[in-house]
């Protein structure tokens, strides 16, 4: 996409002719001139839309009625095409242009691309499903999407397999057509075992054709974003657009809780008590597992380590924290320095590509990298057996009625709401005035309520005073040697870093 | 000297000998150049070495077999990992513009590690294995091998013993090497049934109807379940293990079974009671599969899915030595899968010793060879090619050769087509 040069061109297309299709694959970028203010307004609206898509996908059953209604009303409110049978060229134009603007803002990193693609694909699915059967066929035809159907004979032969493969697909019968496509074209169906697979081909019931179309859309979009990323320097040289695009890509991840502002506001001795008072359940669970097993596997170290970074642990503190715990287990100090210290410094952007990683949001915890054998990470509301969750909540003294309310929310797949309910119950507030989307947000809100936020802050305004404060508190008598230790660690870290450089890591 | 006599302290002394005279470089190069169908396929492949004291060197690459040999003989890596084929030579990755150095292709790989079964095996834990729990690996290989072939249509699967406590699979078909990261993760997820971490007791939930893939996998598990789980692991014998099994059945059934079990101690009969319950308790509207779920939770392969997902993920190379056990990472011949014994896999000390035990007639040939001295290098070359044949490594290299022959047939057609094209122009 050549954005910069395109802006100079003046092409006037009668909009009505350009936007005859209710839904498109966004193959061609828009060629008209638009004003900066329209540019910005379109972009912000689409972001709001995609954000709604994301939130609805988490808090509601995807593809359920509520979900559909929510998306429809949001499309309507933001002036996007919401009913695909009405021709509204203005709205379609906005859909087209805003999509391409966001491509510019969201092509820059792997994380941004993944987020953007996921939301666009979900949006596309919603809109494709809204098409009439006739429109669907037209869409396939116009976009050259042709799929092979299998013969009646083959269908008869594979009867049992086909019927047993279509779990969750309502109303599949052998009366309908089945398409036979390379499995690579139907990844979502393969992943969830919703189709029969034989010798590299997926057999797809007609009703699931949307999955192949989506797969195609996803592939195209992914390629297009990679291309866009390459032409990005040209766009970035445009000083009108660059700040705007950066703002767009940052703003909608919400606050990033990366913790730079909080560095040094927490002492290691506070962690145990904070874990009980102000950590969300997921982090409390990780903390407990770490203290008990003196070890956490990679997924847990990332989720918990970045959270701790977010609440204000410095690199030196983090190294000390993890090391003290690990060496009580099977790992000796030498092994820790060799095998695990890298991982911690990496989190703080001191290794590898030196990206400063941000703590995981609830969305990321819920949706990506589910825990497996030996793991304690993930979202306890999403990734626990209800029975175990119940026990745990009881153990943490949540009232029976509270437990039931939480389990009800979990049942409805409202994991974040369940967590927020847990927050309210454990903090004795009726209605917490925020919408929970991040473990670090949970922590901050909790500290605010407990008045601890100020405490923590005051404690570290100057190192001097923090010493006094903690000395007064008593349990932190070991503070002095700890500081020496961390100094020592810092030196070691420096040495290690040069070692790693030597080995071309 | 038996293979259990390996001493990790000897590794620095043994590795030079291994890389000079035993490592099957010719076959290794033949494998990774894939018939030269794509130019610079070997050259752009990342290798990474783990050297003494855990020094880890990434982004190594080599232009020829000779260069690879020379470098390995110089560095004597404790461990070799294979990575992706990149857009540029990995050893020059710093010289290309950032972002344009990208992993393009790699075999589709699977890593199954016995530690992931710790909650369902009672014989060993963590890095330990025994012949009893090795059955889990046999089951894993049979299930995945079938699915990758029949469901996904792949043909060239190299199964390798990791040297300690697990197995790796390298799917080498061209189509597999070209899979995107999304496709790899879809395949891996299709093949993963055991879900959930320490906060989930029940890791398998089946829904009706049972997908043909799960049906096929269950029939593999059935072949082993009685002997492995009921007899050897005795999962329905001891009190605690019985409780663990019963935690996987619905509450109403659990109580009944607990009653039944008080009068029935025989594990196989107890299992039959569970199966009968599963059948008896199902209504027409809702089938119950807790017996099948138990079988799968105890026996179904547990994949490290992250290894399979990434194109650029590194995996320990075949014929690399495991530094802790000294065992060579050898290809597994599936024709004799049930007989494969990880403890019979040769260690580096064993094969190095076998090498020293020169047979008298070979001593003879050797002295004749040296008398001739016509072409010293040639002789050395020949000798090296023969050396591994005198050791227990021979049968594994032979199997590797057979695997490569199969692969070669697949690219023959491709090469012919290419040369035809060239003639036309």
UniProtKB/TrEMBL annotation, chain A:
Q: Which residues form the DNA primase large subunit C-terminal domain?
A: 273-443
Its Gene Ontology cellular component terms are: alpha DNA polymerase:primase complex
Give the record's family classification.
Belongs to the eukaryotic-type primase large subunit family.
| InterPro entries in the cross-refs | DNA_primase_C, DNA_primase_lsu_euk, DNA_primase_lsu_euk/arc
Indicate the quaternary assembly: Heterodimer of a catalytic subunit PRIM1 and a regulatory subunit PRIM2, also known as the DNA primase complex. Interacts via (C-terminus) with PRIM1. Component of the alpha DNA polymerase complex (also known as the alpha DNA polymerase-primase complex) consisting of four subunits: the catalytic subunit POLA1, the regulatory subunit POLA2, and the primase complex subunits PRIM1 and PRIM2 respectively. Within the complex, POLA1 directly interacts with PRIM2.
User: What name is this protein filed under?
Assistant: DNA primase large subunit
The biological processes this protein is annotated with in GO are:
DNA replication initiation; DNA replication, synthesis of primer
Protein role: Regulatory subunit of the DNA primase complex and component of the DNA polymerase alpha complex (also known as the alpha DNA polymerase-primase complex) which play an essential role in the initiation of DNA synthesis. The primase subunit of the polymerase alpha complex initiates DNA synthesis by oligomerising short RNA primers on both leading and lagging strands.
Q: Where is the composition biased (Low complexity)?
A: 471-483
UniProtKB/TrEMBL annotation, chain B:
Q: Which InterPro entries match?
A: DNA_primase_S (IPR002755), DNA_primase_ssu_euk/arc (IPR014052)
TM stretches of this protein: none
- One example GO MF annotation: metal ion binding
Q: What is this protein called?
A: DNA primase
Q: What Gene3D superfamilies does the record tag this protein with?
A: DNA primase, PRIM domain (3.90.920.10)
Can you state which reaction this protein catalyses?
Answer: ssDNA + n NTP = ssDNA/pppN(pN)n-1 hybrid + (n-1) diphosphate
Instruction: Give the EC number.
Output: 2.7.7.-
Keywords in UniProt for this one? DNA replication, DNA-directed RNA polymerase, Metal-binding, Nucleotidyltransferase, Primosome, Transcription, Transferase, Zinc
Q: Tell me which positions the record assigns to the signal sequence.
A: none
Which top-level group of life is the source organism from?
Answer: Eukaryota
PANTHER family to which the protein is assigned, alphabetical: DNA PRIMASE SMALL SUBUNIT
Q: Where is this region: Disordered?
A: 361-385
Q: Which GO terms describe its cellular component?
A: alpha DNA polymerase:primase complex
Tell me one Pfam family matched here: DNA_primase_S
Q: Cofactors per UniProt? A: Mg(2+); Mn(2+)
Query: GO annotations under biological process?
Result: DNA replication initiation; DNA replication, synthesis of primer
């Amino acid at each position: 996409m050549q954005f910069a040069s395109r802006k100079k061109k003046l092409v006037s297309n009668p909009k009505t002719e350009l936007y005859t299709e209710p839904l498109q694959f966004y193959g061609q970028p828009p060629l008209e001139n638009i004003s900066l203010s329209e540019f910005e307004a379109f972009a912000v609206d689409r972001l709001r839309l995609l954000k709604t898509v994301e939130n609805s996908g988490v808090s509601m059953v995807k593809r359920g009625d509520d979900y559909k209604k929510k998306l429809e009303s949001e499309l309507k409110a933001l002036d996007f095409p919401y009913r695909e049978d009405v021709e509204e060229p203005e709205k379609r134009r906005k859909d087209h242009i805003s999509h391409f603007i966001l491509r510019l803002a969201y092509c820059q990193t792997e994380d941004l691309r993944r987020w953007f693609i996921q939301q666009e694909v979900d949006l596309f699915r919603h809109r494709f499903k809204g098409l009439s059967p006739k429109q669907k066929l037209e869409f396939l035809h116009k976009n050259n999407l042709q799929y092979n159907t299998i013969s009646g004979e083959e269908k008869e032969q594979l009867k049992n397999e086909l019927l047993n493969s279509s779990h969750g697909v309502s109303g599949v019968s052998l009366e309908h057509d089945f398409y036979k496509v390379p499995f690579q074209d139907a990844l979502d169906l393969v992943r969830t075992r919703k189709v029969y697979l034989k010798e590299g081909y997926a057999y797809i019931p007609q009703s699931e054709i949307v999955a192949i179309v989506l797969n195609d859309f996803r592939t195209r979009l992914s390629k297009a974003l990679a291309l866009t990323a390459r032409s990005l320097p040209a766009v970035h040289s445009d000083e009108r657009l660059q700040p705007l695009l950066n703002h767009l890509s940052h703003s909608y991840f919400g606050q990033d809780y990366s913790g730079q502002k909080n560095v040094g506001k927490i002492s290691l001795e506070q962690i145990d008590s904070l874990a009980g008072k102000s950590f969300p359940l997921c982090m409390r669970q990780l903390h407990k597992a770490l203290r008990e097993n003196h070890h956490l596997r990679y997924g847990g170290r990332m989720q918990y380590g970045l959270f701790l970074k977010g609440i204000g642990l410095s690199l030196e503190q983090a190294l000390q924290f993890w090391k003290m715990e690990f060496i009580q287990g099977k790992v000796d100090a030498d092994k820790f320095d060799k095998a695990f210290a890298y991982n911690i410094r990496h989190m703080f952007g001191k290794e590898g590509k030196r990206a400063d990683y941000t703590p995981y949001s609830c969305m990321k915890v819920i949706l990506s990298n589910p825990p497996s054998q030996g793991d304690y990470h993930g979202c306890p509301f999403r990734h626990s057996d209800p029975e175990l969750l119940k026990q745990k909540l009881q153990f943490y003294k949540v009232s029976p009625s509270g437990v039931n309310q939480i389990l009800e929310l979990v049942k409805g797949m409202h994991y974040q709401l369940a967590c927020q309910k847990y927050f309210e119950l454990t903090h004795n507030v009726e209605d917490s005035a925020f919408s929970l989307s991040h473990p670090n947000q949970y922590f901050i809100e909790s500290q605010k309520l407990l008045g601890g936020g100020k405490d923590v802050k005051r404690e570290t305004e100057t190192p001097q005073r923090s010493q006094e404060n903690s000395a007064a508190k008593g349990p932190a008598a070991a503070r002095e040697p700890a500081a020496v230790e961390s100094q020592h660690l810092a030196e070691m870290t420096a040495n290690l870093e040069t070692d790693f450089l030597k080995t071309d890591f | 000297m038996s293979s259990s006599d390996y001493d990790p302290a000897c590794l620095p002394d043994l590795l030079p000998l291994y890389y000079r005279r035993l490592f099957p470089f010719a076959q290794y190069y033949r494998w990774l150049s894939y018939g030269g169908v794509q130019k610079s396929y070997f050259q752009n492949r990342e290798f990474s070495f783990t050297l003494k004291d855990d020094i880890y060197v990434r982004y190594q690459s080599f232009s020829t077999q000779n260069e690879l040999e020379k470098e390995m003989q110089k560095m004597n890596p404790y461990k070799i990992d294979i990575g992706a084929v990149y857009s540029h030579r990995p050893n020059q990755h710093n010289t290309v513009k950032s972002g344009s150095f990208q992993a393009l292709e790699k075999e589709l790989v699977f890593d199954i590690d016995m530690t992931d079964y710790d909650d369902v095996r009672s014989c060993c834990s963590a890095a330990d294995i025994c012949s009893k729990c090795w059955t889990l690996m046999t089951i894993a290989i049979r299930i995945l091998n079938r699915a990758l072939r029949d469901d996904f249509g792949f043909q060239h699967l190299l199964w390798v013993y990791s040297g300690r406590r697990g197995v790796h699979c390298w799917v080498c078909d061209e189509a597999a090497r070209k899979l995107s990261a999304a496709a790899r993760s879809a395949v891996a997820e299709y093949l993963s049934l055991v879900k959930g971490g320490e906060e989930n007791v029940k890791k398998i939930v089946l829904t009706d109807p049972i997908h043909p893939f799960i049906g096929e996998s269950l029939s593999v598990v059935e072949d082993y379940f009685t002997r492995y789980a009921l007899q050897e692991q005795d999962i329905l014998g001891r009190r605690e293990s019985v409780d663990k099994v019963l935690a996987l059945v619905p509450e109403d059934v659990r109580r009944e079974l607990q009653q039944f079990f008080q009068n029935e101690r025989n594990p196989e009969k107890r299992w039959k009671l569970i199966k009968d319950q599963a059948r008896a308790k199902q209504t027409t509207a809702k089938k119950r599969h807790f017996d099948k779920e138990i079988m799968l939770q105890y026996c179904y392969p547990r994949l490290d899915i992250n290894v399979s997902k990434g194109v650029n993920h590194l995996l320990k190379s075949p014929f690399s030595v495991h530094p802790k056990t000294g065992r060579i990472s050898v290809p597994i011949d599936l024709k004799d899968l049930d007989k494969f014994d990880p403890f019979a896999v040769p260690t580096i000390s064993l094969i190095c010793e076998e090498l020293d035990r020169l047979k008298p007639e070979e001593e003879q040939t050797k002295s004749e060879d040296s008398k001739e001295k016509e072409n010293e290098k040639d002789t050395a070359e020949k000798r090296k090619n023969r050396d591994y044949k005198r050791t227990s490594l021979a049968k594994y290299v032979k199997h590797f050769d057979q695997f490569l022959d199969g692969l070669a047939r697949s690219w023959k057609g491709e090469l012919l087509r290419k040369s035809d094209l060239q003639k036309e122009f």
